[in-house]
């Protein structure tokens, strides 16, 4: 690569970096910890991007695959408001109301398994970061 090409590439990378924060504020949620209802938590928070998911064929721009108020007789989610999961799901669940952990893992992992796409191992979702915010190598 010649110097000019390198500089062009660097400029492009910098532009991309400058554009990132705007996107992350709107679409990307960092799910985890007390504000999401887990008083005692062990795992690193999980990054979730609405944008990547809304464009999926299986989501097709709808909110119901994730935001619901319960299930119908067929076991399908009934449309609901976009309120926090913790408004309904509690830390200790029972038969009528799955626990928060079952809710999150059920929603995220089931769909990734069904789609055979998206993260399924612990470390791919709960990404540990060092003091500089740099992810460690993912794994269990
Ligand atoms: C598809 C993404 C995904 C995968 C894969 C995943 N989790 Fe989670 N997990 C979540 C989300 C989202 C939450 C709720 C937000 C939070 O507390 O991190 C959660 C919550 C938790 C919690 C409760 C909160 C806490 O931090 O203590 C535990 C424990 C947990 N996960 C352990 C695991 C383990 C162990 C594995 C691997 C066997 C795993 N997770 C795999 C997404 C995932
Ligand atoms: C693939 C799953 C998925 C889809 C589809 C989805 N969302 Fe969400 N959304 C989530 C999750 C997970 C949260 C975090 C909620 C929580 O942890 O309490 C969330 C949170 C939100 C929040 C709260 C934001 C915040 O800052 O906490 C709003 C508002 C929202 N979604 C709106 C929508 C709307 C409107 C649609 C449809 C156009 C939609 N979502 C589609 C998964 C989804
Ligand atoms: C308005 C209340 C309400 C909200 C908010 C809500 N849920 Fe639910 N959820 C329910 C009810 C009720 C059921 C059905 C329980 C049953 O009939 O088995 C359910 C079932 C589920 C199930 C199926 C579990 C199973 O084992 O069949 C998953 C997964 C789930 N919710 C995840 C979530 C996630 C993730 C969020 C946040 C994005 C969320 N829920 C928000 C009320 C709610
Ligand atoms: C309706 C199905 C569905 C649900 C529900 C769902 N995902 Fe996904 N997710 C996917 C698919 C499919 C991909 C792969 C997209 C691709 O690679 O084209 C994906 C990709 C991802 C990725 C990697 C791409 C990116 O956005 O950075 C992460 C992280 C992720 N999902 C987290 C989650 C979490 C956390 C939840 C639960 C709160 C969740 N997903 C719920 C279908 C789903």
Task: Compile the SSE list and pairings.
Blueprint: H1 3-27, E1 28-31, E2 46-49, H2 50-54, E3 68-71, E4 77-79, H3 100-115, H4 122-125
Antiparallel strand pairs: 1-2, 3-4
The structure holds heme C (4 copies).
One heme C binds at residues 31-32, 36, 38, 41-43, 45-46, 101, 104-105, 108-109, 112, 119-122, 124-126.
Concise synopsis of the structure shown:
The protein has 4 helices and 4 strands; from the N terminus they run αββαββαα. The protein has helices at 3-27, 50-54, 100-115, 122-125, and strands spanning 28-31, 46-49, 68-71, 77-79. The strands form 2 sheets. A two-stranded antiparallel ribbon has the order 1-2. Strands 3-4 form a two-stranded antiparallel ribbon.
At CATH level 2, the architecture is Alpha-Beta Complex
Largest sheet composition: 2 strands, antiparallel
**How far is it from the N-terminal to the C-terminal residue, by CA?**
38 Å
Shape: globular
What structural category characterises the helix and strand content? alpha+beta
Bound molecules: heme C
Report the count of strand segments. Answer: 4
Radius of gyration: 19 Å
Fraction of residues in helices?
25-40%
Strand proportion, as a percent range, falls in 5-15%
| Continuous helix count | 4
Mean pLDDT: 85
Number of domains: 1
Say which CATH homologous superfamily is assigned: Cytochrome C3
What order do the strands of the largest sheet run in, or round the barrel if closed?
Answer: 1-2
Query: Could you please say which CATH topology applies here?
Result: Cytochrome C3
Order of helices and strands: HEEHEEHH
> Class, according to the CATH hierarchy?
Alpha Beta
| Model regions low in confidence, pLDDT < 50 over at least 5 residues | 21-25
């Amino acid at each position: 690569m010649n110097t000019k090409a390198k500089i062009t590439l660097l400029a492009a990378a910098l532009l991309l970096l400058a554009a990132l924060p705007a996107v992350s504020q709107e679409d990307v949620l960092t799910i985890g910890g007390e504000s999401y209802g887990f008083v005692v938590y062990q795992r690193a928070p999980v990054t979730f991007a609405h944008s990547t998911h809304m464009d999926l064929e299986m989501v097709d721009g709808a909110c119901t695959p994730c935001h619901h108020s319960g299930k119908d007789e067929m076991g399908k989610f009934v449309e609901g408001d976009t309120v926090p999961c913790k408004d309904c799901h509690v830390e200790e669940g029972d038969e009528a109301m799955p626990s928060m952990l079952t809710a999150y893992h059920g929603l995220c992992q089931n769909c990734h398994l069904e789609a055979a796409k998206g993260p399924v191992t612990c470390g791919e979702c709960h990404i540990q970061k060092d003091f500089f915010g740099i992810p460690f190598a993912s794994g269990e």
